[in-house]
Amino acid sequence: MKENKKESIFSKMNDTTLLLTITIVIFFLMYIGAVVFQGGGFTKPQMFFNILNANAALIITAVGMSIVMISGGIDISVGGVVALVSMSCAVYLDYKGGSIFGSILLALGIGVAYGLVQGFLVAYLDIQPFIVSLAGMFFARGMTTIVNTAPFNVADEEFNALKLTRINVPFMGSVNKKGVYVPAYVEIGVIVALIIVVLLFVVLRWTKLGRSFYAVGGNKQSALMMGINVRRTKFLSHLICSTLAGIGGYVYFLHVGSGSASHAMGMEMNAIASSIIGGTMLTGGVGNIIGTLFGVLSLSTIQNIVASAGLDQAWWTGITIAAMLCIFLLIQSVVMAQKKKALKS
Amino acid sequence: MTDIKKKSEGSFLRKLTSNQLFIPLAALILLAVINLINDPGFFKITLGTNNAGFPVFSGYLITILDYGSELGILAIGMTLVTAASGGQDISVGATIAIAGSAMLRVLCGGDSRPETIQAPIIVAFLVACIVGMLCGAFNGMLVAIFKIQPMIATLILFTAGRSIAAWINNNELPIVPDPKFSYFGSFIPGIPIPTTVFIVAICIVVIALVLKFTNLGLYTQAVGINESSSRLNGINPTFIKFLAFVILGLCVAVAALIKVSRLSTINYSVIAKDIEMDAILAVALGGNALSGGKFNMWASILGAYVIQFLTTTLYKFNVQSDALAAYKAVVVIILVVFSAPTVREYMGQLFKKLSPARKEAA
Predict the structure, then answer these.
(1) At CA A264, angle to CA A247 and CA A270, rounded to 5?
(2) Which of B105, B158, B112 has its CA nearest to residue B127?
(3) Does B147 contact A333 at a Cβ distance shorter than 8 Å?
(4) What is the CATH number of the domain that holds A50?
(5) pLDDT for B2-47, tens place per residue?
(6) For residue A329, which residues of chain B lie inside 8 Å, CB to CB?
(7) What is the ipTM of this complex?
(8) Domain B64-318, what fold?
(9) Which residue, of A127, A225, A265, B139, has the fewest CB within 10 Å?
């Protein structure tokens, strides 16, 4: 009897909510597990905020990636864009004597330019998004070395002041060994990331544009029948994703404070993995921004658990993350299959 | 009379441009012409002697044939995977590291500086084949049985592959002492043509025979075009997808043999880096739909050599190896824009509009 009821709840939920619930539940189980079994740093709230600080840029790019994936495309150029933005801004600030405001405009400009070109190629010329963004990734990585070959730290004082700006979180601080109260803090990037997450959550949930992303990703043909401008929707999804990659690039730059051609290596794969763990499907039409946020958190929590578990051999990080990713994917796959069966019977 | 001639000419042109081989061939010819203008010596092949005193051919064309071989072999498997599953395997670079590492482990027996090889090369190669096919089977299982999108399923091995490769050899970098092992990636004494060319030729002949005498090609296309209708026709789509990934695993093992043999050792984080992107690009350049379905194996292999030709040409123009990617991207974008159906249609219309005007002028 109880089993039956459970099934009916499952089948009542739509795909997006179901996958989101799984992700959130697993994330909390994992975090609680880390607190119970490892204790140490995990018991302090600052650990959580550090995860946020280190991954604000990933959250922003992953959110953009989710939107492209929901509308049925993919963009693997985001890591390259992040590297290009950080290098360009670093050169602009240090060698060209630019201002902070100018560098932000530069970051946005690179993102928007990328979005315009890639969106046009994908939406209006019908070229496969994978190929377009693959070329985009190559171009960004190559351009980064053309802009400046050697990695360097930014010396600009205003920028470094902004980099070190910390926003204290009330009631979350902890008392250290000397009995001094240390407030918990987040960096500016985290605030930006959270604003973007909330904003895009609202857009995807309650606006016409947001719903048309789901419609186009779910079924292009029926979206066209419904009178949605499919090409424009696809174009906008790529524009948003690349713009967010530009913003994410600046947040990344603000966190590391240097320009290097090897920055954000493999970030596109982390963004895709986070979206997947968060319940977005590569086939399009299914996904949730909040899920992506939890996807990023889950991914980085795994990394932290591995690091603090003392598995110091470098290869363990790669293997464990892959294993966790595998488990997440299998759970999703099995649950979705179960649900389909339940719906059929 | 002239009208008929013109018509047949037009249809010939259309036939030519609609052929899948047209894009890679056109790109190849364009690159060749650019090189010819820049330096006619590009196509010169000279018979010299290498360090060991054996006669070898050298020249840019030989370099392209030699270094394009791994990509050509991978393109075979990647085409099948793309056609059957409608997705791509992004783990090939990482699995090359795993297969290569396993090969070294068998050859050196866990010792990083052995005096002699601990097992015959053929045994090591077979072990690498098995390891490669196991990796392929793992990916294939996730894709075919658990219905995970291929790019995501292979993301797992992409993340873990290089770590597993390092773990197999305890993060040491063994060096194979036997000079015979290095023949696979360079020259067999006495034969002036790179061994890799023969390896690719064998692979191409094998896949040609398989495609000709078995239903693999037909079934793969059927599964890629419509999975449920192929099931209704008695094909097992799960098995076909699984098989495509296992075949790619075999291609990976062969590519790993060449890669490891070139150095007689391995570098886990650098070996075959970004080769997955080039392999996917080769399939796309060959005009194959990345969403699966119909495929043309020869166009893919040609695409692989076009990429190598492009790389060599760029090096010839003194492009820094780090900045290479940017130029490659521009060329790729130009290629795909001209091969896009929308652009082609538009060009066709433009051509039609222009032709009556030309008639009037005549």
Answers:
(1) 90
(2) B105
(3) yes
(4) 1.10.3470
(5) 445 555 555 666 666 667 788 788 888 888 888 888 887 777 787 7
(6) 142, 146, 148, 152-153, 156
(7) 0.73
(8) ABC transporter involved in vitamin B12 uptake, BtuC (1.10.3470)
(9) A225
